[in-house]
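Support request, please re-run this one:
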Amino acid sequence: MTRSGAQYKESLRDGREVWIDGERVKDITVHPAFRRTAGSLAHLFDLANDSPHSAALTDGAVHRAHLTPRSYDDLVARRVAHKTWAEASFGYLGRTPDYMASGIAGMAAVADRFTTPDYDGAPQVRALHRRMSEGDLYPTFTITNPRFDRTRAASQQEENDLVARVVEERDGGIVVRGAKTIGTAAVFGDEILVGTIEPLAPQDVDHAVCFSVPIATPGLKFISRTSYEAQARSVFDNPLSSRFDENDALLICDDVFVPWENVLVYRNVDLAFQQWWQTPAYTNFVHQSATRFWTKLEFLAGIAILLAKANNSYRMPPVQAQIGKLMGWVAQAKSMVLAAEAAFEPVQGGDGAVAINKELACAHRIMAGEMYPRFVAEIKLLAGSSVFQLPTSGHDLLHPEIGDLLAKYVRSPGHDAESRTKLLKLAWDALGSEFAGRHEQYERFYHGAPHVYLMQQAWEGDTQRCERLTQTCLDGYAL
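Re-run finished. Output below.
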């Protein structure tokens, strides 16, 4: 059965070591840097556990993200579940529990690929999948190496434990030391999967490890970035950053002991990289993230429409053209999700499993990273200066001396000062705040750097078909 939000929040009180502003956080469910976002995540569990959305989110026993799709209808059902959760945060919570859950389901669909001559991780992959699905757990992950000297391999850095690596092997498991970075939403999870999505050099065998352990495992330290939630004045003044700041953390492994039953990949450079690309893990990630991206664009387009109406400019032809451009981009994001589902592919060795089209999944990375900044820029043009010429706080509207002045001068046709301020503060939180800046950078890079995914698109795209078609044209005529 799925957990309730209260059960999820209780699981966070496990003594995990989270640091922010030089303080070790005792309980993230009540700390001002994390509590509202923890509440937003708890709401997702409540939606699945007991709400009118439960049937869309689960099959009655587990969340649909844990299931292995075996048909087009299964893919559609999974997308509906992804979208239901995405709409609950208006697309601003990216690494919700269904993200990594779907990736683990992808690995489990072809678990035998984790069997190698030197180490058999297949039983551990299957056990991880069962543990996550049956316990309705929240798997998080960090698979990015810290940015040190990029001209050197992980094992050739100035210190040999900057990047997480195995430093000792025991009968019962391994000891890991070093760091990983960009642990988005990591502090809110039940377990964290630690691995690498970057190619490793042949000599990096000590770094070629993937494991999943509880967040409260001794030796795991999470150092949080600045909390936008903590900086928020109120939900009225910062409606997005106050509730949907999933946070990003640096993970430090201080001689963490990992039992063998939690080790998926061990000292295998090729498999450490291929586990994402030669299983449905990556395409499952994209199914969730592309659905969330589409939802986020719908929300932002709604902001643009409401701003234009509040400014009494919605019917003006230039504004209609801008709205049309935004809606066209929303349709593009939607169509990529639907097309990737319709062009689904069988998973090789997956015993009937299917996944969304890999070529289209890769293409989505290019589209999303390039479209998002343009989308935001278009709305900023519509908004003008109104989004930052605002009262300091919503409480100013109730002030005995200046409240009446704001009521007179901040309103617009059809919108009193409170409703107009409420809309503009939402718009600023989405478009111009520090929280908004993080999201623009996130959407540009959450699938990786452009120089990586553009090359991969050349590999995954059917370049031979394009070449043959053009050659057919050339062969059809002569001098």
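The first helix runs from residue 5 to 11. The domain at 5-277 is CATH 2.40.110.10 (Butyryl-CoA Dehydrogenase, subunit A; domain 2).
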